[in-house]
Amino acid sequence: MSTPQTTPTASSDPTAVLLSVEHLAVQYKLPGQSEPLRAVDGVSFEIGVGDVFGLIGESGSGKSSVAKAVMRLTPISSGSVSLGTTRLDQLKGKDLRRSRRRVQMVFQDPHESLDPRMTVLQAVAEPLKLGAGRLTRTELRARVLDLLHRVGLDETHLDRKPHAMSGGQKQRVNIARALALEPELLVCDEAVSALDVSIQAGIINLLLGLQRDLGISILFISHDLGVVSHLADRVGVMYLGRLAEVAPAESLTARPRHPYTEALLAAEPEARPSTHRAPRAPTVSGDVPSAANPPSGCRFRTRCPYVVERCAEEEPVLRRIDDYTWVACHRAEALTLTGRRS
Amino acid sequence: MAALELRNLDVHLQTLDGEVQAVRDVSLSVAEGEIVGLVGESGSGKSVTSLAIMGLLTPGLSRTTGSVLLNGRELLTLSPSERASARGREISMIFQEPMTALDPLFRVGDQISETIRAHQKVSRRAAAERAHQILTDVGIPDAASRLRAYPHQLSGGMRQRVMIAMALVCEPSVLIADEPTTALDVTVQAQILQLLHRLGREHGTAVLLITHDLGVVAETCSRIHTMYAGEIVEQCSVDQALADPKHPYTSGLIQAIPRSDMRRQPLFSIPGRVPALTAMPPGCRFQPRCAHARDECLLPQPEIRTGDRGVRCCRQDELTLTGAVPQEQR
Question: What is the ipTM of this complex?
Fold first, then answer.
């Protein structure tokens, strides 16, 4: 049974909240096992209108399952996902299809998510044909061009097929497709992870511009703390299906409050000369335990350098420790953890 | 004498479009106990370079010229069987994806023992004991039970440690590590990088670390070679490259990385894309994407050496380029 968690709020004003995820659980049945795998086990967070919320975690943390649950691409075992006043988790059939235009997703692999036989024009026109009502061929083409301009492409790309484009261009086409029906929320699951760093920078700039110009909200999921904290207003740190910490990006990196956040910051390589690198916490040992069989009590306790007896006995609840910071650690107040100097 | 030295290495590959040059005039050296970084994006030729060093490119479809010296001995003139004997014994390689590099049908211990017995005349039992020892050395707890495991029973970090163990079991003097941590979680990556450090310190292993990640290089290497479109465009100490890059491409790579003091600001992104091997631009290969390009950049760019530093840019002395340190802290 999962412990109920309180929800890290995006804002004191409930009308300013776009996405609200409460006590979300996603479970997968494993072949030959009676106990399901609890990929997401009681996760709560909110995304404000026009905000970028970053979700970071290593493999098995459940961050992609959160994305799939928000997209309704995987069954939700319990909890709720609301977009504005709509309970996404309760929608069915026609209502669910209609709601899909409000939340759109960009996936990790730009090559896999495009049909190799479709031109850019066809690929971007597809969602418009499905959801933008009747459009003449000229109107359709004009709308596609608008979208391409928005993502930094132009009419020379209209007739290209995926094989004739670079990874960065393909990801731009995927973003144009996702924007076609003017969604309120864009879910990006490792959307820049497969790209070279110089290309990745262009996509990050594009997402920042979309948020600024269109006021679109973004759920940005990545394993890369540097990228997440560059883009996000607030960041949630996931470990084995649970949120360890939720805080504004700046304070999360400067002053982490959960030992796992500190461990991530310590492990993230920093491209700075040795003379400009701040002292770090020591690297934690071991691998992430299997999500099929998480440790009792605090899930991070098997690797945590600050572990005490209580951590094995009692699972820490995500709780508010100041105006902006939520943390699931018994010892949050007692510990002084090392962050990153900016 | 360097443990590994490349002199003017050229690699030509046969493709359906005819012969292309994937690596051009690459020279670098790695001393005993040193970790040297070879950095580049996709298509830079860094992996072809590593395969050429190992002699793993298909002979009929590739042509490697220049010089690859392993402890002073030329590798390129050796017979295939002589090279095979050097591989694993004197020079080893680890790859990005440890799952595909291990045989799923054999126990980890048997795969390590096989490597030992391919190079040394030892009994099965002695090989098994050596396998146990090397797993312990690379930080695998409970080595005895891991030896009996199949690759799928191990986590990604454990598999990469097994790969490293297998590469090191015959105590080669040189290790080529091609993106060894790219598939790993960041907390596990940190452990593997520390392990590479320890190898240099305790065994004197010379490591050539090939990666796309400047952060990994900054934390691990003493020297860095930046590769672009088959050429090394800059080589110097890691601190020099990061604080004061002299080639516009190195500077572009550094500026493309998100930095905590520049949150939510637009990042520098290099326009255009890496040229295809069949359509290399004249002169400087980076010139079509370079903000500092002038007419003289259309001429061939030889490497200009100043002390320990080599830069393939004719404008290196006039340009002040942005590095990873805020201007006022330089």
Answer: 0.89
